[in-house]
Amino acid sequence: AALTVRFLTRRFIGEYGDMEFIYSHNLTVDGREILFHIWDVPSSQQAEEGSSEEKRIQWADSFVLVYSICDRASFNILPLKIQFIKAAKEGQSQEKVPIIIVGNKRDLHHQRVVSSEEGRLLALSLDCGFYEVSAAE
């Protein structure tokens, strides 16, 4: 949620509840107006492997999966999540589904438990993009 709000408003808010939201946002990219719909799902609800998860995957055109560089468990669930997404989306068509892995909390490097190299290697092995960011900064 912090990363989504930072993207949408350029402000950082550190505390969020455990609710999912759908945001809409217009952005000009290469001279074209793009309307984004962002379905922001908290990590507690991402663990679902049922109809809600299937609905989210079918709804989306692309995916940004965020983990905390200070939380190994949030990183470790990514391969399964990505395989689940690819099976659901790519099984229906031959098109590659755009997936980006984002390591958040780069500003908390002193609490880091997942290295940048681990993030890059995971993204490479799963054919995803990779970035490290700080929603706070």
Please provide a written account of the structure.
This is small monomeric GTPase. It comes from Scopus umbretta (Hammerkop). GO terms for molecular function: G protein activity; GTP binding. It catalyses: GTP + H2O = GDP + phosphate + H(+). The protein has 137 residues and is an alpha/beta fold. The protein contains six helices and five strands, in the order H-E-E-H-H-E-H-H-E-H-E. The protein is globular and about 45 Å long. The model has no long low-confidence stretch (mean pLDDT 83).
Quick summary:
With 137 residues, this protein is α/β, with parallel strands linked by helices.
The level-1 CATH class: Alpha Beta
Unreliable runs, pLDDT <50, ≥5 residues?
A: none
Q: What structural class do you assign from the helix and strand content?
A: alpha/beta
Fraction of residues in H or I helices: 25-40%
Gyration radius over CA = 15 Å
By CATH, the superfamily comes out as P-loop containing nucleotide triphosphate hydrolases
Shape: globular
Please give the alpha-carbon distance between the first and last residues. 15 Å
The CATH topology label is Rossmann fold
- Residue-averaged pLDDT, rounded? 83
Helices, by number, come to 6
Number of strands: 5
InterPro entries: P-loop_NTPase, Ras-related_GTPase, Small_GTPase
GO molecular function: G protein activity; GTP binding
Family: Belongs to the small GTPase superfamily. Ras family.
Protein name: small monomeric GTPase
